[in-house]
Structures are given as structure tokens and as C-alpha cells.
Amino acid sequence: MSEHLRHSCDNRDQQIAQLKAELERAYGIINELQREKTESQEHPIQTLQYSTGVVDAPVQKKVLDLPLESNPDLPLKNRSSKPPVKKVKRRRYKRQLSIKQVFQLLVLSTVSAVSFGLILYVGRGLTRLKSDPVIVPTPTQLISPTPESTLKLTPFHSPRRPSWAIAQSLPIPARLPKSDVSEIAYNIHTPPHFTSSHQLQTIVNEVVALASAQRFPKQSLSITLIDPKTGETAGYQPQKLKYPASVVKIFWMVALYAQIDKGLWASEQAFNPYISKMIEESNNEAASFILDEITETESVPTLRGEELRKWINKRLQVSRFFQQAGYKDIIISQKTFPISYLRANEPRSNDLRIQQILRQPSKPFRNLITTEHAARLLYEICYTKQAISEEASKKMCGWLKRDLNPSVWNTSTYMDFNPIRGFFGQSLANTGAHLYSKAGWTSRTRYEVALVETPDHRKSYILAIVGSDKAYARDESIFPKMSRLVYSRMISSSDTTHDPVAQGSSSHSIKQ
Length: 512
Hints:
Pfam families: Beta-lactamase2 (PF13354). Helices cover about 45% and strands about 10% of the residues.
């Protein structure tokens, strides 16, 4: 607090005290005048005497004591009646003077009250300045002095945010000026080259048979299995486009890190609370906020005409980001619902308009990916660490790490969405395995993609499974059973011919 500010506060206190005293005196005078007015109405003669200064002598005596020689030509009656006329005039003058004084005092009181209120208002502002700490930026908050850092690093608007973000006073990410999202491209332009494996296909076939044996519809099932150390793969309907549920959030995370890597945002840390909730807790509100930020769009207000056309083009950019990198026919431009802070249980406003405009007669517009898409992305993030950059891949894989300790996840208060119970990790809890995963679940879909690694890091695999039917969505045991089956078959494999880890190389270990 500066000396000048303290001096201002002291002056303010003195002015307030003086105004209070003046107001009290004014109120006292007004009360006294009101009392005199009341008395004058009840006792006019006494009031007249009090006002003229003649209290002890009656009016008649005062008149008789006047010298008669003052005007000898006047009759006695006229001479005796003249003084009362003067007194009446004097009394009227006194009454007029009192009313004028009352009016002046009322004006003075009004001005004083207004001044007092203004000083109190200013005083409160000074008090806030006096009580609030002065925030001095720490070195970590400062941005290196580049030509761009001198520009205004604020969002292009104040975006709608979840209530928990507002309650925690989370910072609003600031986009750097002259940043163009359309110029950002995924750094891996072509899919990895995997070879088909009879051994892996046998494992996949066993998983399909397990589902059929328990009366789950296999036509609603898709599977991709990859051995990243041998570059082999197998699958069941692996290229069939299906609704990904919350698995789509991995793709949004990669698109965000691509923008951060290209310097479109002033601070990566501003996004961390939202990434944490989107990936670790599968929070739809955090995902909604991130999708809005990376596409420069918002669900509301409803747009029309050219503004809506521009909005749709921006929202589709996140799909083009992956389509241009060989993720054929992928669509990831639609939010996941419900979203509480938008009061939307399903698409509405602009999110509904994009569905209506891009819908085809036999194909509604919605998020669609394949298990090959999901498995490939996890392979590029956590195994090759080539997604965006090695540093970015390590950070993203860290967000996907799951704690399989039952004391952590097997509780009623773990998370709103439990990514272990009812999914792959539940049956791996006692194996010591390392799990990096993202699960999705709706009333009609159960989806998960995961990289599983043995405790000794010698064996790993990537598994993506989706069951697009209510039967899979309602049953919490089928995915754990499938997961345990694949794990037991993969660790029992004795083929280490193409295993770099078994040959002494650890270049692709998933250790964080």
C-alpha cells in the first residue's frame, strides 16, 4: 500500500466525520424551527413578543408608552393604532425569514447528504484498494519478450465455461494473435504399415466367440488388436465406422496439443485442468470447452446464413485434421452430451443445425471412428511417441495412465465415470500390468481403446473394442472378460523373434 493511498484514506475519513457533524447540526436547527412553528400556531401573541424581543411588557403597555408629541395632528385613536401595524409587518417579516431559512437548510441538508453518499462510495473503493493485495507477476507468469508477446494475449471473447471452472477461477486460455487453425496439420501423414498375423487373429476370434457364447450380438462388435513390437495386427470388422462415445476425446486432445506445439496459445498450463477432467474423468463439460476453443466455435447463440456456414467450416476442421493424415472418413466434430453448463441433454442450437445440414438420407451426421483409428492413435501417442512431438506424446500418454490399485478405483466416490469398473482394467487389477486407456459408455455403446504392458515391460499390445448395442452397454462383465482373455493369450506367446525388448532394446518402452 503506497503512502499516497493511505493519505487519501485518512482525508476521506476526516471528510466523512465533518459531514456527519454538519448533518447533525442541520437536523437540530430544522427540529428547533419546526418546534417554533408549532408554538407560534398555538400561542401567536407570545411568539410575537419573543420575536420582537419584548417579553416582560404587554403590547398595550408598549403602545401607551409611545410619546404623543411624535405627531400631534393625528387623532389619539390613530396614534395608538399605528404601532400594532408595524408589529404585524414585523411579525410577517419574521415568518417569511423563518420559511426562507428552512428552505436554505433543506437545500443544505440535501447537498450534504448527496456529498456524504459520494464520499462513502469513493471510500469503499479506496477501502477495497487498501485491503486487496497487490498481485505482482512471478517470473513463471511472464512470457519471453518476443515481438508477439507485446500484443494483447486475451481470448477473442469471453467463452462460456463450466460452473466448476468459474468457481475455481480457472484462467481462460489466451489465443495468440494472427493464429490460423486451418494451417495446422497432423505431423504423421500416413498410417503405419502393419502386417496381418495369424496368431493375433486367433486371439481375436476367441474374443468374438466369447461374446457369441454369452449371447451378445457379434454384428455389433468391432475389434482391433496390435502387437506394436512386431508390427502385426488382427481384427474383427476393424474398419467399420461406429459411434465412439467418449473415446473421441483422445482425438480432441491431440488436436489441442498440435495447436499448442505450433504456438497458437499463450499458455499450455491454462488447459491442464480441462484436459485432466476430459481424459481422466471423461467430463463432457471440459470436452465441450476444449472443442470450442480448438475450433473457435460455440454451441450458442444460434447462427444463421453466412455466419452458420463459417461456423460449420470451423467445426469440421478438427475432422479434416485427421482425415488429411489418413484417418479415412473419420468424423469427430460433434460434442458429447449431456453438457450441464449449456443445459443441453442432446444436440441443440448450432450443434443441432450442423446435424440437420450435413445429414444424408441413409447416414445421419454424428461422430464416427473405427477401432483401427483408435488403435492407431494410441500407438502413435504412447508407443512410437510421434504424435505431434515426443514431448507432447509423453504428456498425452501421461493423461491416459490408469491406476489399477483397487483401493483407488473400486470405491463409490472414485469418479462420476469410472474408467476401470466394467472395462479392461477391472480384470487386470491383480496382474501388475500398466494400463493407458480411454473408455466411452452410453446407453447403446461400450467402447475402449488401451495399451497394456506387462510389469517387466517385455510385452505390450494395443486393444480396441466397441460393442454398439444395448446389450454391451448394460453388461459390466463382458469387457473385463474379453480383456483378461487377450492378456492371458498375449503373455503366453513364446514368439520373441521380432521382439526388440527381448533382444535387449528398450527404445519403445512405455515407462513414463
